[in-house]
Design goal:
The protein is α/β, with parallel strands linked by helices. It contains 7 helices and 5 strands. Helix 3 crosses helix 4 and helix 5 crosses helix 6. The longest helix is centred in the last third of the chain and has 17 residues.
Length: 219
Amino acid sequence: MWCIGRITAEYRDRMYGLLGLYARPYDAREPVVCVDEKSKQLLRQTRMPIAAEPGRYAREDYEYRRNGTRNLFVAIEPKGKRRCVAITARRTKVDFVAFVKHRVETVYAAAFIIHLVLDNLNTHFRQTFVDVLGAPAALALLEHVEFHYTPKHASWLNMAEIEIGIMDRQCTGQRIATAELLEAEVGQWQQQRNAAERGIEWKFTRQDADRKLCQHYVS
């Protein structure tokens, strides 16, 4: 957010909306679910790494061989303390709709309203569901979904980015050679964090935003 020189009224409206949403007490009937995605390049080692020993980190050669890429969809329910990661070969409209559809119809089937937090990627809009499913099916699927968007160039307001950062540090930041190994590593990481009930405690409030960013506000 620090490279934004001017914060418009639209930016503030979206920011205030998300900060208000994050400040609500937890309600399982209205889960707040933050969704984002990232690309992971698969890299094969060209030489055998040297394993870690007491007092010494593992070491690996700087050379590697590219072995394709995979897309990771990440959904985190910060106050519900659960997340789901889906790995796909591509990041198309069809892939995104399938990921959200599973969340809506299976994971949160009992919810009254699902508050879905997204950034402004071109596939993240209601029209995508119409394009993939057709208007009647999209309308039925999204009947209990409310979309919330970060301001443009402000994906820091999407807590899925925090979860992706944690996933990178704890799991996917290392060299991973194959899609099968990526599936196994991410699956284990996800299971452990869900079992430990790791959530995200968001502390940045509207008052904090006004105090820190007000000099950049424009009407």
